[in-house]
Amino acid sequence: YPCRSGAVWTGIGCSNGYATSISLSSVGISGSLASSIGSLSTLTYLRLFENALSGELPESLGSLSGLSYISLLRNSFTQSIPSTLGCLTALSFVSITENSLTGSIPTSVCLLTKISSFYITTGATNPGICGEYPSCVSGFGDASNTVLNTCPGDGPSFQDNALCGLIAATNVESVYSDWSCVSDGGSSTTTINPCAPWTGITC
Questions:
Q1: What pLDDT is attached to residue 194?
Q2: What are the Cα distances from residue 135, in Å, to 138, 140, 182?
Q3: Range 136-146 burial, b when 16+ CB lie within 10 A, else e
Q4: How far apart are alpha carbons 97 and 74 in whole angstroms?
């Protein structure tokens, strides 16, 4: 067991016989992040970026109440961001961009009052992250500068229909005319046009 066997474990920081940091970046680690990581209650620093980790982010991450830094970028994590992320109230830095995460950002992130850098999606990374940033996120790191994709079902779709013939451009515009999106961290509202990233529309 690291920190108690007397042996030195690469990338594992210890204090008083307990693990306080894990720093194993760019070392080719693969597999999933085990739910048992939640048992490392003294962990304050978790740095595993640029590896080949996959699967979902375990809910048990929420048990690491003393964690102040977490970087999991450039892996292959999938599924949604666990709502238990909001339990990590000591967090000041979060980076989980450049993965394959999906779904919306949980509103529980509003509990992260000590956050200074909050990196979830930038440009084409994490393209499955969708919806809107919770209103409380506007001041978190890069969050206010990033526009999220539209979640499936948030807008009209032309899939699974029995349409035939041509659809006039004016008809497409009327379909979208009543839809709007929030940008700039919620400070402004703009009308969506037919070439916004909606299902079934190619521009």
A1: 45
A2: 6, 10, 10
A3: bbeebbebbeb
A4: 7
Please enumerate in sequence order all residues whose Cβ is within 8 A of that of 174, keeping only pairs 6 or more positions apart, or say none: none
**pTM: predicted TM-score of the whole model, two decimal places:** 0.70
**Residue 142 DSSP symbol:** T
Q: Which residues pair with 29 in a beta bridge?
A: none
Tens of pLDDT along 160-185? Answer: 555 555 555 444 444 434 333 333 33
Residue 86: phi and psi, rounded to 5, are -70, -15
Query: Tokens in use for 122?
Result: 């930038």
Query: What is the DSSP code string of 63-84?
Result: G-TT--EEE--SSEEEEPPPGG
DSSP state of 192: P
Cα dihedral sign, 77-78-81-84: negative
- Asked if residue 25 lies in contact with residue 50, where contact means CB atoms within 8 angstroms, the answer is yes
**Separation of alpha carbons 192 and 89, rounded Å:** 36
**pLDDT at site 192:** 38
Query: What's the pLDDT at 12?
Result: 92
How many residues make up the chain in this entry?
Answer: 203
CA distance 111 to 145: 21
> Which helix H or strand E contains 31, and what residues bound it?
strand 30-32
- 11 vs 27, 45, 52, 72, CA distance in Å? 10, 11, 17, 15
